[in-house]
């Protein structure tokens, strides 16, 4: 757009200048035409003059003035033409400059100044046109006057011919001037032709400029359209943003309205609960009254229908007794079979545990035996070292005694030799001390090596490091042995030198004292023996070092074997741990099956007990009716007149009225009574079908029934019938308050409400993130939740045995939040089969092992909400996958204990947002409403 503006200004200026030039050229052409017409008139009036006209021009003085005026007018026209040429050249130069160098600085001026300049230029053009028109008018007027004067005064001219004969020369000059005028008109015509050619070229240039201008205008229009589209898009975006703002405001208003409605609904629900309680009380009173009335009516009816029901009662009793006997026999048989199977399972488990214990004991004994062998070998090595030290001590003592004898023999004569021998003894003692120190060091190193071996046997991981240390100690011992050998060789060389000196001194002494020659020979012999003994001791030392090296190699081999044995033991231990883990998993599965069967058996037992109670009540009522009918049986001849009590049947007739009725009508009445009693046999058939299904279920789970029977007996002995009373009461409450489907919340796993529930469960951020990721994956199954809003086409694959999440240390409020808010979100996914198990962990450990119960998603125990006494297990399995067989082990569940050591939960009943102390006092919808109110309170205050 910025580049288009100066180009447009240049094009506008060029068009204006072209229009001005066109106007100027058209005006010049017009005036040229007018001049040519005028000159043609003049020339027609001048050429080929008649003698009368010549005389007339010769004798008229006004003719000169006219010609002079015409000549002056032609000069003016010529000057105007020159100016127009100059203006045209300037315009062409400006156009070429615009085409080459762009717009002039004046073209960037404002539109107002350009309009003013154009108006000034137009005014000047109109002025020039007015001048030219005035001059032409004057010239025409003069010509007309001249013609009139010619017609009026011919006679006067004839009279004055003689007066103007002198002016013939002037006439000739005037003819020359006329010739000049003709030449000028020719030049004007040529110039007009050139101007027409220039005008045609200018028209071509104008056409090119117009095409360029049209192209530029087209480009400008396209850019304007683009800009308009962008502006429209911006306006649409603004409108969308404003629309979204209005929608958000509307949603906020609706949210406030819904919150107010929820508050109103909570108030109305409390009011309705009170009204329902009042209505229930009224209904109970009405029921009691109706029962009293029904009892009265039943007593009257029983007295009338005893004769009809006797046979039915007898048959029913026989059938019921037979069925009860059969059912009791089947039940006892199945229970005994289940007890046997349970005993077999327990014996197999005990035998497996004994085998594992025996295997562990055998492994430990082998380990202890290897340790004992190593200790015995180390003790043998220590004994061998001690023996070698004793031998060395005896040898040193012998050497000392022999040297003492030699000193006694040559004490007086060879003091120098004695001093030398004393020095040698000191050196030998120092060497012995060094050797003893080295032996002690070796013993200490052996003890350290034994300690390291023991540590290796205990830890099994530092064996390689200790072996490296032993190798280093071996290298150090070898280096020390090499050093001792070097020292011994140096000492022997020095001793030989000293012996040579002694021999020289003995020779000198022999020359001086021949008496001591034999003693010198003895000394030499003794010294040779000492050398032999030293050589023998060196060989012994070398042999001992070799044996020590061999023993160290054996120790290293035994340590390697011990390491291999330790690895084998570790592998066996791992396999045993895996087997134990599998056994625990199978035991967990068995316990879960047992608990599910137990709950099913309890429900079936409750239903059976209720149905048996109903049947027993009906049987008792029928028996009372039969007895009353037998007591009040009437003969057909006797008609009681004084029967003022006249018991009314359901049809409103007394006994006398029934007896007086015809037989057809009485039979219809009896059929009606029998049809009223007809619902008993179908109910009995339903009971038999239910009992048959329970017996089949017991047959399918025969291996678990003995343990269940024992647990039920222990529970019945401990709880005294509360197990049956509590589910019946819960069932009655569910029947009163409605047990419809669980209402699903409006949020998702990734919402703020889920984060609040996890924050109330634990303060550990890593646990919260782990549980939240697991729930999000299960919610998005079979897909994968996107990362940071990016779309993903990956597919999550669940194993065949499913996936399990275990949660511990949960408060009752957090448990209810999981059951009523998060579990329904997972159950919305049709591709998953979700099972939830909750467990109460507040009791003692021993009682918990014996009385561990799996509670359903709707049942809960009232407990102190500040205590974390609940644990939960969520098992998720693919709905398409078949049920996992019992042989496949379950994977290790995601075990997430809570770190709930902070302040109490805001979802607890002590918070100002809670209205009820426990979740057991309300139904599913009311509990969901309470938790949603608490979450809303946390959302507003957080």
Count of individual helical segments: 20
Distance between the termini: 53 Å
Strand share of the residues? under 5%
Query: Which shape, going by the Cα principal axes?
Result: flat
Structural class: mainly alpha
Radius of gyration: 68 Å
Helix content: over 70%
> Biggest β-sheet, characterized?
4 strands, mixed
Oligomer: single chain
How many beta-strand segments?
4
Write out the strand line-up for the largest beta sheet, numbering strands in chain order: 2-3-1-4
* Overall number of structural domains: 4
Order of helices and strands: HHHHHHHHHHHHHHHHHEHEHEEH
Low-confidence stretches: 42-49, 104-109, 633-650, 720-724, 732-740, 788-793, 844-865, 882-894, 897-925
- Mean pLDDT, as a whole number? 70
Structural description of this entry:
- The chain has helices at 4-46, 51-59, 62-101, 111-152, 154-159, 168-304, 306-409, 415-459, 463-512, 517-631, 655-660, 663-676, 680-700, 705-719, 722-737, 752-761, 765-780, 812-827, 845-850, 924-941; strands at 803-810, 832-840, 870-878, 894-896.
- The chain has 942 residues and is mostly helical.
- The longest helix has 137 residues, at 168-304.
- The protein is flat.
Layout of SSEs?
Layout: H1 4-46, H2 51-59, H3 62-101, H4 111-152, H5 154-159, H6 168-304, H7 306-409, H8 415-459, H9 463-512, H10 517-631, H11 655-660, H12 663-676, H13 680-700, H14 705-719, H15 722-737, H16 752-761, H17 765-780, E1 803-810, H18 812-827, E2 832-840, H19 845-850, E3 870-878, E4 894-896, H20 924-941
Parallel strand pairs: 1-4
Antiparallel strand pairs: 1-3, 2-3
């Amino acid at each position: 757009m910025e580049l288009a503006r100066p180009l447009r200004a240049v094009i506008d200026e060029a068009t204006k200048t072209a229009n001005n030039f066109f106007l100027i050229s058209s005006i010049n052409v017009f005036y040229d035409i007018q001049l040519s017409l005028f000159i043609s008139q003049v020339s027609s009036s001048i050429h080929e003059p008649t003698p009368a006209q010549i005389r007339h021009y010769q004798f008229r003085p006004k003719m000169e003035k006219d010609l002079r005026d015409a000549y002056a007018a032609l000069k003016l026209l010529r000057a105007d033409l020159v100016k127009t040429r100059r203006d045209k050249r300037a315009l062409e130069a400006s156009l070429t400059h615009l085409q080459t160098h762009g717009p002039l600085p004046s073209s960037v001026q404002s539109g107002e100044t350009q309009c003013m300049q154009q108006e000034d230029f137009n005014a000047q053009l109109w002025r020039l046109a007015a001048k030219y028109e005035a001059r032409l008018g004057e010239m025409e007027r003069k010509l007309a006057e001249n013609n009139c004067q010619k017609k009026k005064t011919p006679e006067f001219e004839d009279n004055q011919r003689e007066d103007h004969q002198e002016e013939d020369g002037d006439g000739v000059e005037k003819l020359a001037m006329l010739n000049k005028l003709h030449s000028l008109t020719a030049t004007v015509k040529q110039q007009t032709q050139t101007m027409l050619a220039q005008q045609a070229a200018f028209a071509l240039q104008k056409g090119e400029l117009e095409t360029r201008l049209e192209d530029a205008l087209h480009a400008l229009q396209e850019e304007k359209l683009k800009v308009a589209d962008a502006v429209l898009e911006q306006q649409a975006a603004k409108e969308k943003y404003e629309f979204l703002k209005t929608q958000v405001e509307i949603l906020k208003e609706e949210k406030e309205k819904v919150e107010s409605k929820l508050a109103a609904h909570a108030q109305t629900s409390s009011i309705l609960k009170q009204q329902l309680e009042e209505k229930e009380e009224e209904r109970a009173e009405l029921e009691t009254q109706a029962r009293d009335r029904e009892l009265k009516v039943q007593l009257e009816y029983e007295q009338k229908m005893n004769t009809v029901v006797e046979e039915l009662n007898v048959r029913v009793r026989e059938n019921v007794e037979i069925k009860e006997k059969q059912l009791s026999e089947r039940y006892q048989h199945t229970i005994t079979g289940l007890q046997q199977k349970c005993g077999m399972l327990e014996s197999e488990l005990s035998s497996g545990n004994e085998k594992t214990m025996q295997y562990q004991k055998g492994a430990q004994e082998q380990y202890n035996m290897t340790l004992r062998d190593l200790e015995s070998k180390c003790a043998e090595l220590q004994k061998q070292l001690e023996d070698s030290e004793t031998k060395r001590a005896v040898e040193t003592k012998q050497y000392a005694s022999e040297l003492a004898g030699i000193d006694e023999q040559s004490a007086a004569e060879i003091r120098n030799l004695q001093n030398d021998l004393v020095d040698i003894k000191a050196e030998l003692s120092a060497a012995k001390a060094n050797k003893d120190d080295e032996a002690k060091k070796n013993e200490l190193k052996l003890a350290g090596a034994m300690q390291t071996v023991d540590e290796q046997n205990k830890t099994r991981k530092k064996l390689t490091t200790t072996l490296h240390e032993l190798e280093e100690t071996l290298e150090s011992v070898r280096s020390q042995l090499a050093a001792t050998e070097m020292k011994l060789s140096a000492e022997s060389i020095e001793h030989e030198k000293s012996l040579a000196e002694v021999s020289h001194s003995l020779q000198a002494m022999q020359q001086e004292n021949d008496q001591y020659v034999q003693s010198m020979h003895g000394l030499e012999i003794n010294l040779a023996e000492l050398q032999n003994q030293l050589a023998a001791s060196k060989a012994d030392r070398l042999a001992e070092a070799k044996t020590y090296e061999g023993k160290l190699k054996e120790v290293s081999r035994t340590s390697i074997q011990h390491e291999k044995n330790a690895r084998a033991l570790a592998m066996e231990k791992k396999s045993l741990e895996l087997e134990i883990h599998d056994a625990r998993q199978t035991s967990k599965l068995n316990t879960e099956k047992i608990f599910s069967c137990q709950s099913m058996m309890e429900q079936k037992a409750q239903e059976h007990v209720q149905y048996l109670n109903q049947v027993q009540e009906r049987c008792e009522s029928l028996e009372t009716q039969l007895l009353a009918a037998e007591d009040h049986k009437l003969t057909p001849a006797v008609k009681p007149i004084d029967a003022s009590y006249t018991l009314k049947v359901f049809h409103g007739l007394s006994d006398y009225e029934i007896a007086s009725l015809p037989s057809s009508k009485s039979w219809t009445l009896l059929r009606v009574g029998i049809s009223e009693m007809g619902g008993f046999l179908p109910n009995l058939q339903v009971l038999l079908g239910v009992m048959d299904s329970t017996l089949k279920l017991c047959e399918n789970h025969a291996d678990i029934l003995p343990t269940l029977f024992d647990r039920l007996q222990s529970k019945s002995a401990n709880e005294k019938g509360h197990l049956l009373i509590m589910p019946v009461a819960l069932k009655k409450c569910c029947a009163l308050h409605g047990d419809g489907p669980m209402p699903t919340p409006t949020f998702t796993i990734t919402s703020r409400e889920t984060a609040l529930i996890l924050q109330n469960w634990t303060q550990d951020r890593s646990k919260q993130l782990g549980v939240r990721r697991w729930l999000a994956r299960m919610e998005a199954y079979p897909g994968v939740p996107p990362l940071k809003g990016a779309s993903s086409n990956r597919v999550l694959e669940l194993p065949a045995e499913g996936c399990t999440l275990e949660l511990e240390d949960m408060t009752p409020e957090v448990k209810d939040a999981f059951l009523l808010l998060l579990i329904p979100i997972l159950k919305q996914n049709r591709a998953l089969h979700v099972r939830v198990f909750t467990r109460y962990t507040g009791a003692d450990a021993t009682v918990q092992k014996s009385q561990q119960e799996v509670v359903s998603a709707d049942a809960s125990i009232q407990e102190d909400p500040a205590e974390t006494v609940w644990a939960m297990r969520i098992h998720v399995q693919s709905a398409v996958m078949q049920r996992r067989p019992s042989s496949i082990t379950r994977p290790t569940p995601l075990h997430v204990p809570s770190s709930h050591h902070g302040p109490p939960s805001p979802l607890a009943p002590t918070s100002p947002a809670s209205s009820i102390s426990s979740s057991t006092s309300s139904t599913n919808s009311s509990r969901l409403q309470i938790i949603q109110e608490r979450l809303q309170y946390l959302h507003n205050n957080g």
